[in-house]
Amino acid sequence: MIRPNIAFTIARGGGTIKMLVNLKIKVNGVKVVYKVYRLDDKGKKYPDQTINDIVKPEWLWFYTDLFLRSAGNYLVELYLDGSNNILASGKVRILEDKE
Predict the structure, then answer these.
(1) Where would you tag: which of 4, 77, 78, 92 has the fewest CB atoms within 10 A of its CB?
(2) What CATH fold (topology level) applies to the domain 7-96?
């Protein structure tokens, strides 16, 4: 699972959120890859960015900073480096601060 929050507000021009990963089993690797996709109104995925992060094999939970440039709906998929199997995924809605 990636979350507990599903909606965040960022400033115009972008902002950073903390992305929490909470696994049911140990990550069992030393490097993970976050693939971030922007979703259109029909749910079609468009690649936005990829983040690589170092972890410890015994970790069940960890987090990383995610910088998003604009409001919208996003999907994040987490993989062990070199694997095509998704460890976790989650959607997040980003709102733009009106001030």
Answers:
(1) 4
(2) Immunoglobulin-like (2.60.40)
Contact 28, 79 (CB under 8 A): no
pTM of the model: 0.89
The amino acid sitting at 23 is: L
Strands (E), the chain: 7-10, 15-22, 31-39, 45-54, 61-68, 72-80, 86-96
Alpha-carbon torsion 36, 54, 66, 23, what sign?
Answer: positive
**Digitized pLDDT (tens) for each residue of the chain, 99 residues in all:** 454 567 888 888 899 999 999 999 999 999 999 999 999 999 999 999 999 999 999 999 999 999 999 999 999 999 999 999 999 999 999 998 876
What is the rounded distance in angstroms from the CA atom of residue 96 to the CA atom of residue 44? 21
Going from N- to C-terminal start, the domains of the chain cover 7-96
- Rounded to 10 degrees, what is the CA torsion of 98, 72, 19, 3? 100
